[in-house]
Structures are given as C-alpha cells and as structure tokens.
What does this fold into?
Amino acid sequence: MTESAKLITDMGRKARAAFSKLTGVSDAQKSAALKAAARHLRANQQTILAANQRDVESARERELSAAMIDRLMIDEGRLEAIASAVEQVADLPDPVGQTIDRTERPNGLVMERIRVPLGVIGIIYESRPNVTADAAALTLRSGNAVILRGGSEAINSNRAIFEAMAAGVVEAGLPADAIQLVQTTDRAAVGAMLKASGLIDIIIPRGGKSLVKRVQDEARVPVLAHLDGINHSYIGKDAAQDKAIAIAVNAKMRRTGICGAMETLLIDQDYPAPGPLVRALLDAGCELRGDDSILELDERIVSAEAPDWDTEYLAPILSVAMVNGVDEALAHIAEHGSHHTDVIVTEDADLAERFILRADSAIVMHNASSQFADGGEFGLGAEIGISTGRLHARGPVALEGLTTYKWVVRGTGQIRP
It folds into this structure.
C-alpha cells in the first residue's frame, strides 16, 4: 500500500468512526459547533489573510490565470462572507430526521421515508479556499463526516481556515475527525480518495474541467459533479432594453471567473435594440466574439470560431449569436450548453414559461442574472457545488442534497400471508 493510500485509509476509518458518533449528536450541538467555527474564523482573520497572501503571491509567481487568482484571493470582506455563510448554515433547519412522506397501507402498516446523512463525503476542489469552510459547514450540519482535499495553490489558506473550523467543532464537543483536511499536496492522494470504496460514500469534485473529468473517469465511488458552466442568456424580442443591458452586463462581468457567469449571449433577431446591448458589454471591457449578424453591430466585435460556442471562458470574453426565435435559442442551448444555468429575458410571460419548461438545465431563470446561480443566493446558506446530473441532487447542492433517505415501517404485529 502506498503512503497516500495509507493516509486516506487512516482518514477514512477515522471519518467513519466520527460519522457513527454524529448520529447521536443533537441539532443544537451541530448548530453550536458552526457558530463557534464562525467565531474562530473571525478571531483568526490576520492568520488566514496572511496565509492567503502567501498563496496569492505563489500563484502570481507561477503565472496562474487572473480567473484562478480571483477565485483564490481572500480579503476582509470575503472572509466575513465566509464566516457569515457558516452562521447561516448553523441557523438553517436540520434536514436529518425529516419525514419526506408517509402512507398507511390497507393492512395498517405505516410507511415513512426519513432523511438521513449520506455518510462520509470526500470533497476534492481547486483554488477556492471558501470551499473549505462551506463544505465543512454543510457536511457537519447534515450529519456527515467529510474529508477535504483542496488544491496545492490554496494549501496555506485551506489549512488556516480548516484549523479555525476544527477549533469550533472541538469546542462544541463534537468528534474532531468529523472534518478532516488532506494536508499533503501529493496528487496521489486524490487517486487514493477516488478508490476508497467502503470508506468514502460519495465524492464531490469542485474545480476545473480536467479535475472533474479525472474524478469521473477514475472514481470507484459515486460522484456528484458538473463539468462546465456554459451558461446562456437569451434576449427575447419583447425584452425591456434596460433589463436586457443590466442583466447581460452583470451576468458576464460581475465576476467572470465563477461557474455562474454567462458565456454565450443569444439575441432574438426581432429584438429592436441589439446595438446598445453589445456596446454596453464592449464598453464594460468585454471581448465579444460574434456570428455574421452580430459582427455588423460594432467594429470592435471579432468573428466567433466553432469552438467558441462550446467554451467556458471564465474571463471577460463572450460569444454572441443572433437567433430566429425561442426555438432556435433552445436548439442552440441544447447543442452547446452544459445544463448548468440558462436565462431568458422577456416581458412575454407565456414565452418565458415556454423557455422554462423546455430548457434542460439544472437552473432556469427569467429576467435575472445567471450570477445568482449560487447556493447562498438561493437561501441555502452555502453550497458544495452545482450539480448538473439527473440522479440525486440537481442545481445548488446544500443540506438537503447531502442527505438520502431510509424507509421506516411501523406495524402493530402484522405478518405477511
């Protein structure tokens, strides 16, 4: 057995023991642990920011992309948001033990489906140190144990955040191994996690396409993931001009490096004001790559190539196409989208409902920026990630998505004839 395999095996066994203990922990204890963790995050602000600065400086020396550095960076405001998200999760209703449904059979047996934790969750992520806190908070609140493996580019930040979170867990009297961080940056540890069947119940990857693809290809345990955020905004012919401009600029330019950023803009050929719309994006500093119809709108627009329609830029670059009605827009999304988040901007309620019904995406929005594709904005406190699959959770994965269910059958002595 390799050193990495030994490490993950040991962590997995500790996590399973911690998970067993968590089944007897009250909702109040879990909530108290997270509130204590939030206090420790704030109390250790300078330590966390200094650790993050080391990571950012290293990332710049390695010439990582601007989008990667943006996701990596923590300042006082972002750290406060991390701590606040942990507190929000602490205040959410505990999903464990909730009755999903209840029926009584003709023979008097009462059948119930009850929410229970998934078990031991392995989370593999890149760049974003806030995931360390979000994942620890959500898994603990939903009664799961977690093994966290962040990217090497954020190792100092992840360690500092983890230590603050762990201090809160111990202070509240919960098992210390309920949350664990893989301290090594050896990539072999990822492979060991993917093969830890029997110790880890589910893997959740959060990062770039290459990471997620590796996890999906190599995992011997179930995976909950999405590959890309190739998100579209369709501007219908009846869209209000001010809304169209505000939504499009925000969807692309608020933060270009997040998975909820718009990557393709589709404009109905009968929309009366495409010129001001593309100019607003250009003036905001966005490079536009358009089809022949879009090229005519402004000389600053460059011609789109075939790969552009299938690209998650995570940068101030946007593909733009003119489409003939909602059917053509939906066909474009079906061919090039990633089932993450797609938006329609229109004042026509019937058209909006048609789009919402037919768009095969985990998140579909009407008259809103795709940047709202975030668990916190959905009132979930935080998220593990956005799932675009069809099994188990879909969309922002938070507390409910980290539970499964078991059947409970209550009888009064019935026997089967």
User: Anything to note?
Assistant: The first helix runs from residue 3 to 22.
